[in-house]
Amino acid sequence: MSLEKKIKIIKNGPYIVTGSIPLYQQVIVTDEDNHAKNLDYEKEYPIKETYSLCRCGKSKNMPYCDGTHVKIGFDGTETASKEPYLKQAEIFEGPELKLTDAHEFCDHSRFCNRAGGIRKLIECSNDQKAKQIAIEEATICPSGRLVLWDKKTGNPFEKEFEPSIVLIQDSQKKCQGPIWVRGKIPIESYDGQIYEIRNRITLCRCGKSENKPYCDGSHWMTKEQKLNFRKKWGLD
User: Fold this and answer.
1) How many CA atoms are closer than 13 Å to the CA of 166, on its beta-carbon side?
2) Can you give the residue ranges of the Iron-binding zinc finger CDGSH type domain (predicted)?
């Protein structure tokens, strides 16, 4: 009997992945203006029914856990809100599109900056080119911070992902990015609570996030950069 597809967070330890969930590595690619645009396939890992992914960022057997979290006294305390996404999100509307934006989920992969940025694009979403770019930016947002909605139908624009996990490599910042969880895989807290099940979400794998288990960009951002971001969006 196969195990349930799930990610279980171990207190101050790794992510335990069950259910033979495929694991890939993809790299951020940019457009001619050096804006993050898409992700390219790099590698597929052997399928395992169960595997443990490093959460502290110090394993010598990346991406897998090797027990280093115990040696270094890793503090993996989960601090992220368990409120549903839509309760955390702000709403921005244009002629044909509505954007919901929950800043706390942002992993700073920067896919929303092309062509002036997604908020500018939705303001002129009656222009078909602007509308299409906005849809591309929202649906590639790994963290699920951004969700774009069709105002006529009320439906979100979402890619259909098979349950899978992607290790993102950030070519611009020259570092490992977050763990991209796709296809509505349940994520279980160390205490047994289930986080809201979503089509797209990113988990921290550097051990530095201040919004664990989610990625907050700490794999490349300094404390000052994160503070400036929070001030910009009025998060403090």
Assistant:
1) 24
2) 38-75, 188-225
Distance CA 47, CA 40 (A): 20
Q: Which token pair is 53?
A: 């992914």
Using alpha carbons only, what angle is made at residue 24 by residues 35 and 214, rounded to the nearest 5 degrees? 65
Q: Where are the domains of the chain?
A: 6-80+164-232, 85-150
Select from 99, 100, 103 the least CA-distant residue to 123. Answer: 99
Task: Give dist(CA 124, CA 199) in Å, integer.
Answer: 27
What DSSP character marks residue 115?
A: G
Q: Residue 2: count other Cβ atoms within 10 Å of its Cβ.
A: 8
Task: Give the DSSP letter of residue 184.
Answer: S
Measure the CA–CA gap between 84 and 221, rounded to whole angstroms: 26
Instruction: Give the tens place of pLDDT for each residue, 104-152.
Output: 999 999 999 999 999 999 999 999 999 999 999 999 999 999 999 999 9
Residue 143's nearest CA partner among 211, 62, 63 is 211
The separation between the first and the last C-alpha atoms of the chain, rounded to the nearest angstrom, is 48
Stated pTM of the model: 0.95
User: Nearest Cα to 71, choosing from 56, 83, 85, 84?
Assistant: 56
SS3 annotation, 218-236:
CCCCCHHHHHHHHHHCCCC
Alpha carbon of 192 to those of 17, 47, 177: distances in Å?
Answer: 15, 26, 26
